[in-house]
Amino acid sequence: MIPQSHPLVTKQAWQIELANTIKDPIDLLAKLGLSGELDAISPDLIMGFPLRVPQSYFEKMRYGDKNDPLLRQVFPLIDESIEQQGFVHDPVGDHNAITSPGILQKYNGRALLLTTGACAIHCRYCFRRHFSYSDSNPLASQWQTTLDALKSDLSINEVIFSGGDPLTLSDAKLAALVEQLDAIPHLKRLRIHTRLPIVIPSRVDHALLKWISSSRLHVVMVIHSNHANEIGDDVAIALAKLETAGCQLLNQAVLLKGVNDSAETLVKLSERLSDVKVMPYYLHLLDRVAGASHFDVSEHDAIELTAQIRAILPGYLVPRLVREQQGEVSKTVIA
Ligand SMILES: *Cc1c(COP(=O)(O)O)cnc(C)c1O
Ligand code: SF4
């Protein structure tokens, strides 16, 4: 007899990796040969937004380099405890933009769904680090209300899966969601904002590709990569599979001091994205969230950097430099 695996209890490879992320800053430094080289914030401060690093992301960090651009994105440096004027808990006004349980609507035609609060990696610059997802997570209890809201608003033609990271949800859940969205006639596009193909490329498996390719909606995936070193061969293979399944691939990055704030680094990122058929979309100025001021690059320097990369790259590989400003009808394009 062929042994049968039970779909509800068998974990996929990516789910095992998701469950086994590196969680201890001391452990992470030791693995990189950097014990004692960086000071972390105290354990009680880190609790609300702990260290979280998947194995395949860790493997792309350079051993013995405390300035590694991937390490810098995830390590809870002591600098996070610096209180800086203008750096607040909800810098982009997300709490005010909730129009229905789990729906954020700021812009015409697009409804953003907070599908989950969970992420595979914790990025220290994240503006959502203080967001109380448990209060605004539709899938937990109020999905029907969310769906009814989408059905009744004929002005919405694009649904955006956001979070947290939507691809931390199981494919069974996602496929069921997409099936219900497929049945809403006025929807045209499904956009997925995710860092999973970058940080756990094994997430792009058969089950994921199946619901993506079978949806009637045009699927746009916005991956979040901030540095070319994040895009190894494993990531390239995952992205190629998504492209073959019919996904349009875009990248959004955040401009981060000490990570990607040089023209050379930004050019390399765009070139690498081009290699893997991903179009650079946005380069975001940092959202001014409390605890992230050490990543801030001034608007002046950001404009200068954009001019430098525009002088080197073809126009279509230059991302739009944007900032999110509360109350505006779109992201604000700076350069
Ligand atoms: C950023 C954002 C979008 C998408 O904006 P685009 O400019 O279309 O990428 C949609 N909804 C919300 C709430 C957003 O914050
Ligand atoms: S929402 Fe995105 S940027 Fe924020 S921690 Fe999760 S993966 Fe990182």
Describe the structure.
This protein is of the alpha/beta class and 335 residues long. It folds into 2 domains: 13-80, no CATH class; 95-333, Aldolase class I (TIM Barrel), CATH 3.20.20. It contains 13 helices and 10 strands. It has helices at 13-19, 25-31, 43-46, 55-58, 69-74, 138-141, 143-152, 171-182, 196-199, 206-214, 233-244, 263-275, 299-310, and strands at 98-100, 103-104, 110-114, 158-162, 189-194, 218-223, 248-254, 279-284, 320-323, 332-333. The protein has a 10-stranded mixed β-sheet. α8 packs parallel to α10 and α12 (263-275) crosses α13 (299-310). The longest helix is centred in the last third of the chain and has 13 residues, at 263-275. The mean pLDDT is 93. The structure holds pyridoxal-5'-phosphate and iron/sulfur cluster. Residues 97, 104, 106-107, 110, 112, 160, 330-331 line the site of pyridoxal-5'-phosphate.
